[in-house]
Every structure is written in C-alpha cells, then in structure tokens.
Write a structure and sequence with these properties.
Blueprint: H1 2-16, H2 22-31, H3 38-47, E1 50-54, E2 60-64, H4 74-83, E3 84-90, E4 93-98, H5 103-113, E5 118-123, E6 127-132, H6 138-154
Antiparallel strand pairs: 1-2, 3-4, 4-6, 5-6
Helix pairs in contact: 1-5, 4-5
Length: 155
C-alpha cells in the first residue's frame, strides 16, 4: 500500500515541480516522509512510465508519458484494481471511492488506460469524479470497471 501512496506522491511532485534527477525526486520524497532508495525511485519511474521532457526553463524534467502508441502498462490496471473501493453513477458522472490518498493515482491510472467516452477526471484524496460524454455511455464504462475488478478477485 505504501508503494501506491509513494507513486501517487511522485505523480503529484512531478506535476507541480521541475524535477530533473532521481536524487532530487528522492530528496523531495524524503521531505514528504517517504524513506526511499535510488533503486526504489528507479523502479517507480519505470512502473509509472515517466519520461524526461524539456521544460519551459530549458532543462529536462520528469513527466508522465502522453504517447498514445506506447503500450499501456499493467501497472495502471493494477493501481486501479488495488485502490478502488466502490463506484456509482448519476447521469453522465461516475463517482469513484478509493483508499485514502489514492484518488490522484487512480485518476492517473484511468487517464492512462484511455477509456472511451471519458471527457475528463477530477481527483481528491479518496474520491475521483469522471465526466462521461453522454449518459448512454456510462454503462459501458461501469462494465469495464466491473470486468477489471472481477479479474482482481480471480487472482
């Protein structure tokens, strides 16, 4: 569970800071209360499929890959499966409850899976709101979620 919390914090840190090196990322994580090694950071970067991009300041920084032709890591499916508590819909909205601190990680996972008809998501600490393009597409998304959770229970 600490891994998801740590990886969620990594996603938050790289979204809000220009982090150029694994050392800087490790030091920022330590300030946030995560005791990490370089090997752990390296593994997290690989699992989260982080890449280095040129920032506005002309330096390279870590970012989430936005390549749609890249294979989707099972990691994102696992994050979804292991952090979701429940989900429910109302019209064209889906509200997802997650473990505490895992809302943003679940949101990133859903964004990276590339679900059809999802216009966007908003994540809080333990809740995720998905906006679906049309109410008639909500059942399709819920069916995908159910299939993913059934796979979890079979393992």
């Amino acid at each position: 569970m600490m891994r998801y919390s740590r990886q969620n914090k990594i996603l938050e840190l790289i979204a809000n800071n220009e982090i150029e090196t694994q050392d800087k990322l490790a030091s920022m994580l330590k300030k946030e209360g995560f005791d990490v090694t370089q090997a752990t950071i390296s593994r997290d970067i690989k699992e989260l499929q982080l890449i280095k991009v040129l920032s506005a300041s002309g330096k390279y920084k870590y970012a989430v890959s936005t390549r749609h032709d890249a294979p989707i890591s099972d990691r994102f499916v696992k994050i979804f499966r292991e952090t979701i508590i429940s989900f429910a819909s109302a019209q064209n909205l889906i509200v997802i409850k997650t473990l505490s601190g895992c809302g943003p990680a679940a949101g990133e996972a859903i964004d990276c899976i590339g679900l059809p008809h999802v216009v966007g998501s908003i994540a809080g600490d333990n809740t995720l709101l998905l906006v679906v393009d049309k109410e008639e597409h909500v059942e399709e998304i819920l069916s995908i979620f159910n299939d993913m959770l059934i796979m979890k229970n079979k393992k």
